[in-house]
Q: What sequence folds into this?
């Protein structure tokens, strides 16, 4: 009798465990970033996705490593970081990455202190600082996360060579800029970025496009009244919610259900109050990387 009861309890526990979805970790970025906000937004409209747990990171560069090293099941990543890992680093593991959802475009924010001018004894005025992208030549550019890769790719494609200074995160990069330890900061983030809206005393520097850049980046404009009275031209790269090409039936079904729900709820993500404005750019039609099916 006791054995029968014990066996029944064990079977009940086993069935309950089997019915409970496994926890899947999702690499996003900083708690105030676009990736984190959009992940939370999907969780609001797809309430059945409670099995997804956010993991804060430094951004795309860390995210792709976490995904490739099987430390997370999903990761928000810039598509140029994926392509650089494939074409420049020639990492064969990238071939196993798939796009669960194609997302918004993220703009390059190039920030610098306002230029200064001085006049010599002959009355000639000399302006120093970073006013244009070409002014970066020979200068120090701070970047962190996936922005490091973008800084390298854009430098190579434009022929403007500069020293990339690796930063821990956004606060340390801005602190280094204000302290004169770097001449500019290059950050890839979907606008409007909360931390950029909080800046003062800095300039947004235009980032021009060219035929080479057009293969990966699209023209865009930045709108930050706190930094510029008018829009500032720049370029942008599409981001994706990436996963690995998982074959396990249960895991595959969870991922496909999440994908289907997000796609079906796109109008809610675009129109419900409080959702990140970047959802308005998403159409789930442009896939810069193979789709998870």
A:
């Amino acid at each position: 009798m006791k054995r029968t009861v014990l066996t029944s309890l064990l079977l009940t526990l086993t069935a309950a465990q089997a019915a409970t979805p496994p926890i899947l970790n999702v690499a996003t970025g900083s708690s105030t970033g676009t990736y984190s906000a959009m992940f939370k937004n999907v969780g609001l409209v797809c309430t059945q996705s409670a099995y997804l747990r956010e993991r804060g990171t430094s951004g795309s560069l860390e995210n792709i490593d976490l995904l490739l090293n099987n430390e997370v099941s999903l990761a928000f990543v810039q598509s140029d970081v994926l392509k650089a890992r494939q074409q420049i680093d020639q990492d064969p593991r990238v071939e196993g990455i798939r796009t669960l959802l194609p997302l918004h475009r993220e703009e390059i924010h190039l920030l610098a202190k306002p230029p200064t001018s001085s006049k010599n004894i002959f009355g000639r005025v000399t302006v120093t600082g970073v006013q244009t992208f070409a002014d970066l030549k020979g200068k120090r550019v701070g970047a962190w996360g996936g922005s490091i890769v973008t800084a390298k790719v854009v430098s190579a494609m434009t022929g403007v060579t500069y020293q990339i200074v690796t930063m821990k995160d956004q606060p340390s990069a801005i602190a280094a800029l204000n302290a004169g330890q770097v001449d500019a900061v290059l950050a890839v983030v979907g606008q409007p970025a909360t931390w950029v809206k909080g800046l003062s005393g800095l300039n947004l520097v235009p980032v021009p496009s060219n035929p080479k850049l057009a293969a990966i980046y699209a023209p865009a404009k930045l709108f930050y009244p706190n930094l510029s009275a008018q829009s500032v031209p720049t370029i942008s790269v599409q981001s994706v919610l990436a996963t690995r090409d998982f074959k396990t039936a249960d895991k595959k079904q969870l991922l496909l259900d999440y994908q289907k729900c997000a796609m079906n709820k796109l109008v809610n993500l675009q129109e419900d109050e409080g959702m990140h404005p970047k959802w308005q750019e998403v159409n789930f039609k442009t896939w810069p990387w193979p789709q998870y099916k």
Residues 173 and 259 are 35 Å apart (CA to CA). Confidence is low (pLDDT under 50) at residues 12-18.
